[in-house]
Design goal:
There is one protein chain. With 398 residues, this protein is α/β, with parallel strands linked by helices. It has 2 domains: 2-52 and 297-397, Alpha-Beta Complex (Aspartate Aminotransferase, domain 1), CATH 3.90.1150.10; 68-292, Aspartate Aminotransferase, domain 2, CATH 3.40.640. Helix content is 40%, strand content 14%. The strands form 4 sheets. It has a 7-stranded mixed β-sheet with strand order 2-8-7-6-5-3-4, with helices on both faces. It is globular. The chain starts with a helix and ends with a helix. 45% of the residues are buried. The structure holds pyridoxal-5'-phosphate (PLP).
Length: 398
Amino acid sequence: MEERNKERGLGQKMDMSKRVSKLKKSAIHEMTRLSKQYDDVAFLSWAKPTTGTPEYINRGAVNAIKEGLAGGYSQNEGLSELTEEIANKLRRDNKINASPDQIIVTVGAIEGLASAVMSVLDPGDEVIMPTPTYSTHIAQVKLASGKPVLVPLIEEDGFALDIKGIENAITPETRAILYCSPNNPTGTVFAKEQLRQLAEIAWTYNLMIITDEAYEYFTYDGAKHFSIAAIPEMRKHIISCFTFTKTYAMTGWRIGYLHTSEELIPQIKKAHIPFTICAPVVSQYAAITALQGDQSCISEFRKHYLRARNLMCERLDRLNSVFEYVKPEGSYLMFPKILDEKGKDSLVFCKELLKKAKVSTTPGIAFGPTGESHIRLSFCVSEDMINKAFDRMEKYFL
Ligand SMILES: Cc1ncc(COP(=O)(O)O)c(C=O)c1O
């Protein structure tokens, strides 16, 4: 029977799709796996808040459960009370002239980005991505059968956008530009003026801009996050993705949202619904509480990250024969360059550092080829953890 099927060309399709098979295993997950093999590792590799979700938000979720509100689906776009609160927040903090019918509540920023990418791209479409960037974005474009076109950030300019480079990378196949600001992994807050130039490019060439603004509230030294959707003429060209994950330390709740023009919402919903139907309802109630409650937790987190960033920079200064760095003005991540030749293979470098010094970091290659010769360090950890990691690195390198 099997022979007969083969002859008829049947039964040849058991392998995984080429699209998925071609995706590389994430170097971030590889390092996490390796880190588990050692005891007492000093972690500078996690990009998730280590503080718990503020208590008032937990209580909001518990109340929703007790009242029997959390057990069913919500509308696909999210609870109307939540989309209204989100629209208020976008108007107040992002200066986006938003209304509830321009919002979809998503499973973290990630599902918003996946739905956006899926609904914008046809197979073979190119997406320009300033890199190094969050590797998940690159995977999302590939999963949608799109082609990531990586345009390096200008490191000598503090990892600024290369506006000319982006314009030069446009081809007839270009459909979108996807960026995250504040940037993971470099911590750059892209300047308002540069984002205005990017908007002009998108307008001129009729491209979509997809943004990831996960770290919007964590900026330092007077740097200000600018939401490109605040430019009114750009309404139909922008899909902006946000999240509660970082702002309110709600990683595991899986709750975020996207904003775009009301004309695009029905199209994006066609991708959102098969991915998830709706975002977790208990998390939607938690998100309503988060937005309605006392916002002081955000400035507390920001203060903590700023102290941690300053400490990390001080400690890096003592290792200036090993690393060179751009001081990050946003997020809780930084991306030092490895000065030694050995850094050319950042994965090998990070594995050695883990094995010999028991410090877990993330290899730059995880963020695209332009990330090579760098490591990503995360300062959303305690100051004790930073000191422990750097004491070990000093002993190892000096
Ligand atoms: C730039 C960026 N976007 C999105 C995410 C994930 O966000 P969410 O948990 O909202 O899906 C991360 C997580 O580290 C991130 O760094």
